[in-house]
Amino acid sequence: MDDYRRIADRIAADITGGRLRPGQRLPPQRAFARRHGVAPSTAGRIYAELVRRGLVVGEVGRGTFVRAGAPDGQPGHALAEAAGAPAVNLELNYPSAPGQSELLAPALAPLLRPDALGQALRPAAAAGTPAAREAVAALLGRDGRRVAADRVLFTGNARQAIASTLASLVRPGGRVGVEPLTYPLVKEIAARLGLVLVPLAADAEGLLPEGVAAAHRGAPLSALYLQPTLHNPTSRTTGAERLRQLADCVHRLGIPVVEDRIWAFLHPGGTPPLAALAPGLVHLVDGLSKRVAPGLAVGFAVVPEDRTEAVARAVRSGGWNAGGFALEAAVRWLGDGTVDRLVAAKRQDARRRQRLVAEKLAAFAVRSDPAAYFAWWELPAPWRAETFTAAARARGIAVTPGTAFSVGPGRTPGAVRLGLASVPEPVLARALGILAGVARDGAAAGTG
Question: Pick from 215, 375, 401, 417: most CB atoms within 10 A?
């Protein structure tokens, strides 16, 4: 084993064993090199390896800090319970409506007959079934636009829909333009596919068309990935005029787009999808896990007419096909009104939880939307995202540091994302109160 990896393993063991704590700063690389008797270049490789493993994060001008959270650095892992305090996970974000299981169960009964079950358990192709394509086309066409059923493809979940569309569009080494803050798993998908994410200029409304054009002139972009409606983590929704400008921009430059609409169902009557303005370039991805239940692993993509076979090939090669049983269940829930009832309940639930955020964090700078299931909290000085996350963990509460969403070196937002959906409302209210106290106490003490 290379020496630098051996030393990196020792540091990793100190982190996972708790000898180096979340938020703790590592020595400057030159000091680390002297301490371990290695060259400064080797110290740089060790730190890069720890960053690659998701154990530390580098902040330009500040140093390198131990990350809060699980060793792989990804949000969504279980919180180790703090002594004397309940574990409250505000990283996870899985909405669930009251009485959800009772609503879902009746439609499954016909599928449990031996003849129907045998059919439902067969593998599903990327094109799904005619009934599934028609059901999803109807779901996405409720805003008055026509969605062609023959352009709908299915994957195991929405993340796989993102992966398959990007894999079909961009070769390894290709550049994908993204918002400066983006869905963390897109960073993981890009790493696995060998893609380069390029953060583009944006403002409070989203991507700036001139920023897209400038980046494309510098070195061609193979695709864009964006979330125009209820952007995760900021909850921002791009307005109709900006969407028209972006559609004109991608048309002029010929840049294909992956549009993530996974949270858009919470925002009825909002701006139309970018796919409606540039159907020949935009690959719209969505899924049912947020609308229905996280265990319903069905994602889908509505792709340009001439792209169906290319995306279907990517689905097949990635092993990302949806399960036949899940598709059959989805068709029934979409057809009998179950999905509509769940969506209505979750829209009300999200608004109640946002009112708790407004009440408990009224003294702080929180960016959100009344319809969203998450909030972006810009922390008061002198807090940094990683140290605040560590302080929250010490009180049994998991939040996601802003660094998980940032793209590009030196982008270290002093903010955390709060996922509001996965814990009962009384627990959420108590957790928000505790976090407000942590923020006030740390700011008053000048430690963070």
Answer: 401
Cβ-Cβ contacts under 8 Å for 252 (sequence gap 6 or more): 213
| pLDDT digit string, tens, across residues 338-364 | 999 999 999 999 999 999 999 999 999
Residue 301: strand, helix, or coil:
strand
Record the tokens describing residue 336, joined without a space.
């009998």
Q: Report the alpha-carbon distance of residue 284 to residue 201 in Å, rounded.
A: 22
Are 88 and 79 spatial neighbours (Cβ–Cβ below 8 Å)? Answer: yes
- Residue 166 neighbours by CB under 8 Å, 6+ apart: 176, 189, 190, 193, 195, 223, 225, 258
Distances (CA, A) of 301 to 32, 230, 307: 48, 18, 11
CB-CB contact of 357 with 366 (8 Å): yes
Amino acid in position 366: V
- 3-class DSSP string for 327-350: HHHHHHHHHCCHHHHHHHHHHHHH
Burial class (CB in 10 A: 0-12, 13-18, 19+), 448: buried
How far apart are alpha carbons 159 and 165 in whole angstroms?
Answer: 10
pLDDT in tens, 253-285: 999 999 999 999 999 877 889 999 999 999 999
* Strand bridging mode 400-401 / 206-207: unpaired
Q: Which of 327, 297, 334, 325 is closest to 103 using CA atoms? A: 334
**Quick one: how far is CA 262 from the chain centroid?**
9
CB 224 within 8 A of CB 258: yes
Q: Which domains does the chain have, with CATH numbers?
A: 3-66 (1.10.10.10), 88-93+343-445 (3.90.1150.10), 101-336 (3.40.640.10)
Q: How many other CB atoms are there within 10 angstroms of residue 63's CB atom? A: 14
pTM over 0.85: no
- Would you tell me the crossing angle of helices 209-218 and 240-253 to the nearest 10 degrees? 20
pLDDT digits (tens, 9 = 90+) for 88-131: 999 989 998 888 888 888 877 777 777 667 666 777 889 999 99
